[in-house]
Design a protein that fits this description.
By secondary structure, the chain is of the alpha/beta class. It contains eleven helices and 15 strands. It has a six-stranded antiparallel beta sheet with strand order 2-1-4-5-6-7, with no helix packed on it. A six-stranded mixed beta sheet has the order 8-12-13-3-14-15, sandwiched between helices. A three-stranded antiparallel beta sheet has the order 9-10-11. α4 packs across α5 and α5 packs across α6. It starts with a strand and ends in a 26-residue tail after the last strand.
């Protein structure tokens, strides 16, 4: 799929108007706090998810500099090609809530867009995927699985609810020891659901491991190798049934420690994703550039997994991706991500000069200006603001 038009009104600091990106690489560059990330955020919202920056919906409408308050509402519109046809979507953000329109059909929520627009996002916060603890890496696996297997979200929520119930029982057993008789019921539920979660995560990791190796090899120009593997807290068996049996045995082994601590010490909620570069742990020994390249490879592999599942390549959104990457790694992102639409933000105009084909935009104070076209590209845009006699189009 690819986006053919994006329009905004009263959204963050973006000037009102519309923009027409190319189907290849689109680079949005400019100084800090000018609106580059706001543009990517507006695109991401059409996936049906919340802001990747953690912002509340009430913070998305434009901020009035005089009153210090957000305007009452903001509107976004997108035209895109997907499922073999041209489609349209709109988002209306008001009073901290989002409503949407899909091909002329009104929906009460923004989440109704889930599955219509597919995208993968990289932002600087994703570097914590390597830098921080296992929870970040579990979230990466679970988020990616929920995108391609809607049933996994139901499974994961069921496991989490069961875990909460078991942990509550562990705490209550101090006051009411007779409750211990019910522990076996929760153990059986936890084991059945947990084994399935581990199996799904393991299969997904194995399915993207080769993609990650190939992409990272391209970014690093073959000078470094990466390995990614699933690291469960319960070593599984060859079959789902064997994994259930091993998990149940481990729960029995840790029963005393769990009662003393008041929480479940093993299970999918304690699993990890091991990432190594040239045989050493990326978290402990990887440089800033290596860690950034590793996360990029993982996110791009996620995009390829989505493409295999849906039959269409998702749009790739890369926010502030170029810093701490050398020229060769920058060249890979600008010139070797073929067969998909990419939006990249960066600060340096020099970085833009590395582009061989694609479209470039300069952002200043929320105004997005088209720059000279790269070689062999045809004009396919209207600016979000007046420049060189070109008038901004109104949001429709």
């Amino acid at each position: 799929m690819h986006i053919t038009r994006i329009a905004a009104r009263n959204y963050r600091n973006l000037a009102e108007g519309e923009l027409f990106p190319c189907q290849g690489v689109n680079v949005i560059y400019g100084g800090n706090a000018q609106g580059k990330t706001n543009l990517l955020e507006s695109l991401w919202l059409f996936t049906g998810g919340h802001s990747f920056r953690g912002s509340k919906d009430s913070e998305l409408p434009r901020l009035d500099q005089k009153t210090g308050k957000n305007t009452e509402s903001a509107q976004l519109a997108m035209d895109f090609f997907s499922e073999g046809r041209n489609q349209q979507a709109q988002l209306h953000i008001q009073a901290g809530r989002r409503a949407s329109v899909i091909n002329g059909v009104k929906k009460k929520t923004g989440s109704a867009l889930i599955g219509k627009v597919r995208a993968v996002i990289f932002s600087p916060e994703h570097l914590l995927l390597i830098k921080e603890g296992p929870a970040r890496r579990r979230a990466f696996l679970d988020g990616a699985l929920c995108q391609i297997r809607p049933g996994f979200a139901v499974l994961l929520n069921s496991y989490r609810r069961t875990l909460l119930q078991r942990n509550a029982l562990l705490k209550d057993m101090f006051r009411a020891p007779e409750l211990a008789d019910t522990m076996e019921i929760w153990n059986q539920r936890l084991v059945k659901l947990g084994a399935q979660v581990m199996e799904e995560r393991k299969k997904y990791t194995e399915s993207i491991a080769q993609d990650i190796r190939e992409i990272y090899g391209g970014i690093a120009r073959g000078k470094e190798k990466i390995e990614v593997s699933y690291a469960p807290s319960v070593k599984g068996g060859e079959t789902l049934r064997e994994t259930e049996e091993i998990f149940l045995q481990e729960l029995s082994r840790t029963a005393g420690a769990d009662r003393r601590s008041g929480f479940t010490s093993i299970g999918p909620h304690r699993d990890d994703l091991y990432i190594a570069i040239d045989g050493t742990a990326a978290k402990a020994y990887g440089s800033q550039g290596q860690q950034r390249s590793a996360v990029l490879a993982m996110k791009l592999a996620e995009a390829q997994a989505q493409a295999r599942f849906s039959g269409e390549s998702p749009v790739v959104l890369l926010d502030d991706v170029m810093s701490e990457l050398d020229g060769n790694r920058q060249d890979y992102l600008l010139n070797h991500l073929h067969g998909r639409q990419v939006f990249i933000t960066c600060c340096s105009p020099e970085t833009v000069n590395l582009m061989e084909t694609g479209q470039r935009f300069r952002v200043e104070a929320g105004i997005i200006y088209p720059q000279e076209l790269a070689a062999n590209e045809k004009p396919a845009l209207a600016p979000l603001a007046k420049e060189n006699g070109v008038r901004a189009e109104k949001l429709k």
